[in-house]
Amino acid sequence: MAGAPGAAGPASPEQPAPEQPPPGGLGNEQKCQLMLLRTLQTNPYVKLLLDAMKQSGCAVSRERHFSCEDCLGNVSGGFDASVSQIVLCQNNIRNQAHMNRVVTHELIHTFDHCRAHVDWFTNVRHLACSEIRAANLSGDCSLVNEIFRLRFGLKQHHQTCVRDRAILSILAVRNVSKEVAEKAVDEVFESCFNDHEPFGRIPHNKTYAKYAHRDFQNRHRYYSNI
Ligand SMILES: [Zn+2]
């Protein structure tokens, strides 16, 4: 999801104070920070995106560009383009795998923000394109896809999942009708679904992501030798 602060996304300052941490355990914010650290250090999708951002002149720092907060509703995260910060919803991110997916999804928005002049706030097609890419490349649809492919052999399931998730993400951050969101997604779907940068492929699982990371590193090694 990519949205302005407060727009059904990241927490607003009027939120009640977070619960006290349970005795002997870690509070939500500490847990969130620890999971984030692990994601940044070990997840191949995230490592590739961090390298790509650095390569594009937008190096990401954990202290500057991430914020663990309590959020309204069941939102997991958001990208606040006005301050270039990823909000991680510490009250809704359930486990390490969930953290990995949220950070990957939001870093794809951050990558788009870095490489292109994305008009997040007034051009719904720009937002649609980035949501399609985030759903397609982050693994948001891959787990479900695997199960469906095994059970039903539906080749189109991945595309359908990407389209549906992109529409839902737009509706969560923009006050537009379902028809407007659907139209925007359909208009840009073909080109944005086929834009796999910086992965070079759809990374359906961690193994694909590791290969994509290796290829990315090699790609830039060759460039730097030219
Ligand atoms: Zn998104």
From TrEMBL:
<keyword id="KW-0479">Metal-binding</keyword>
<dbReference type="GO" id="GO:0005739">
    <property type="term" value="C:mitochondrion"/>
</dbReference>
<dbReference type="GO" id="GO:0004222">
    <property type="term" value="F:metalloendopeptidase activity"/>
</dbReference>
<keyword id="KW-0378">Hydrolase</keyword>
<keyword id="KW-0645">Protease</keyword>
<feature type="compositionally biased region" description="Low complexity">
    <location>
        <begin position="1"/>
        <end position="12"/>
    </location>
</feature>
<dbReference type="GO" id="GO:0046872">
    <property type="term" value="F:metal ion binding"/>
</dbReference>
<protein>
    <recommendedName>
        <fullName>Mitochondrial inner membrane protease ATP23</fullName>
        <ecNumber>3.4.24.-</ecNumber>
    </recommendedName>
</protein>
<keyword id="KW-0482">Metalloprotease</keyword>
<dbReference type="GO" id="GO:0033615">
    <property type="term" value="P:mitochondrial proton-transporting ATP synthase complex assembly"/>
</dbReference>
<feature type="compositionally biased region" description="Pro residues">
    <location>
        <begin position="13"/>
        <end position="24"/>
    </location>
</feature>
<dbReference type="InterPro" id="IPR019165">
    <property type="entry name" value="Peptidase_M76_ATP23"/>
</dbReference>
<feature type="region of interest" description="Disordered">
    <location>
        <begin position="1"/>
        <end position="28"/>
    </location>
</feature>
<comment type="similarity">
    <text>Belongs to the peptidase M76 family.</text>
</comment>
<dbReference type="Pfam" id="PF09768">
    <property type="entry name" value="Peptidase_M76"/>
</dbReference>
<dbReference type="GO" id="GO:0034982">
    <property type="term" value="P:mitochondrial protein processing"/>
</dbReference>
